[in-house]
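Predict structure. Input: Calcineurin B homologous protein 3, 221 residues.
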Amino acid sequence: MGASHTRTEPNEFQDLMDKTGFSVEQIKNLRKRFLQLSGNEETISRENLDSIPALANNPLKKEIINAIFDKRNQHESEVGSFQEIGFEQFLMVMSHFRPPTLKTTPEEKEALRKEKLRFLFNMHDTDNDGTITLDEYRKVVEDLLSKSGAIEPATAKGIADAAMLEVASTNVPHMAPDEFYEGITFEHFEQILKGLEMETRMHIRFLDVGTATMRCGRSTS
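Output follows.
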């Protein structure tokens, strides 16, 4: 399945709204950002996102970009990655960062939270096997720690291992050691992050194009 063609005709807005939960205004604003990123092309590649200033110093830049092209984040059962994505696929990925509104029901908030957690889980589960292994978790934590330049890789590795063991033993106490080392499932991941407020925190700042409807996260005004 390749990248889809851009769809922005008025009679197609309803379909995009139904699929993503975005309003017409949000879709139009995202379309502007898409064209900025793609250089007015019909598709976006990794190279288009690689030069975004807001991602330049993010230690998880590679993981974030890979997640945007991850087929699992299209709300489908496919696995693998796209080489390029069209506007509709771009919208589907961005829908994971849509914050709740005053009209959002508790059930809808829970669904939004689960979507965000699934996106984060997929970002860590780099081999698409449905579990986050110690090696995968360690790599993310090492990247976060060692890229600061203040911690040696070996020290970062030790901190990563201890952190995962502590988090898992505290939040998933019923897991046996051998089960834990095989990897954390999505259900375990949900338990580990059970107390973390995700609905308004998880956002991508580089999407902002000077309009309040575009901001996925807390307002800084």
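The domain at 106-192 is CATH 1.10.238.10 (Recoverin; domain 1).
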